[in-house]
């Protein structure tokens, strides 16, 4: 059984690596699944989605454009076993975020927050990240769904990369990268304050961890509002990540979502190119996104790394001056987070 935190068990790693890479190279059509009714996917359709997720940690769904509405997006999530939504800033009461370029006349969130201050709600490029990297350790985003109502007039292309592939590329380069990125203080997201009020405390934790037996990645490529552990090993690991994301890669999927299409994923790495909408007065790009504190579970033997005894994100230490956070009861369905700067 492969433990991604055990860098000494090379045989187990190579067996898992061979299984993982057997599905590559792959084009976007390899992960595409057509669904007749987004509100009521069949057992066969769900099995097909989970097979893609087991292999790539994501699937591209093609549904009827008229089915893409908040209710339909939530319905397919529930059918995949996703129950605990992560209700972040600007999401509606159902935890559905309406991703579109904000304007001054449509920038009316409460508490002084403005959509135009947050890159997902602009037409600017969105750098590589996993969702919810600023969340508390016990509130990590483990899956998300993103469905297209209207694409941009030009641009808005997503690149997507399975974190397990990122792990393989980094470990093959040097196991020391994994050692640095699994350190419990590898990546700090500073507290967010506004008008001397703390809207979100600082969050610190590893880039790679294991959550409930599955490899989990917490990452942002942004240059501001992130603080990396200051040592040589972490600097080299960051450089390796930058090289991974800046070079052409056969493992990266590129796709612009069209009406009726959606991505379901176990929080894969992703970015978005800048885009242009039609002139003012015309309907612009609109996508619906839901984040979850569950993951899409699959049952294909041998395709998931597991590590029952490895350290997890539930037990991480906060930086000096920040109250330590511990796991609490999981009965709450929605967890509200006030800040989301980059995805």
Provide a compact summary of the structure:
With 343 residues, the protein is an alpha+beta fold. It has helices at 10-21, 43-56, 70-79, 163-173, 175-181, 232-246; strands at 32-34, 58-62, 86-88, 96-99, 126-129, 143-150, 154-155, 158-161, 187-189, 192-194, 197-200, 203-205, 208-211, 214-217, 227-228, 253-255, 261-265, 269-272, 275-276, 286-292, 335-337. The strands form seven sheets. It has a six-stranded mixed sheet with strand order 1-2-17-6-20-4. The chain has a four-stranded antiparallel sheet with strand order 5-18-8-16. It has a three-stranded antiparallel sheet with strand order 12-9-15, with no helix packed on it.
Could you explain the architecture of this structure?
- The protein has six helices and 21 strands.
- The strands form seven sheets. A six-stranded mixed sheet has the order 1-2-17-6-20-4.
- Helix 2 (43-56) links the parallel strand 1 and strand 2.
- It has one domain: Clavaminate synthase-like (Double-stranded beta-helix).
- The longest helix is centred in the last third of the chain and has 15 residues, at 232-246.
- The model is unreliable at 307-343 (pLDDT under 50).
- It is α+β, with helices and mostly antiparallel strands and 343 residues long.
Layout of strands and helices, then pairs:
Blueprint (H helix, E strand, L loop, with lengths): L9 H12 L10 E3 L8 H14 L1 E5 L7 H10 L6 E3 L7 E4 L26 E4 L13 E8 L3 E2 L2 E4 L1 H11 L1 H7 L5 E3 L2 E3 L2 E4 L2 E3 L2 E4 L2 E4 L9 E2 L3 H15 L6 E3 L5 E5 L3 E4 L2 E2 L9 E7 L42 E3 L6
Parallel strand pairs: 1-2, 3-21
Antiparallel strand pairs: 2-17, 4-20, 5-18, 6-17, 6-20, 7-19, 8-16, 8-18, 9-12, 9-15, 10-11, 13-14
Helix pairs in contact: 4-5, 4-6, 5-6
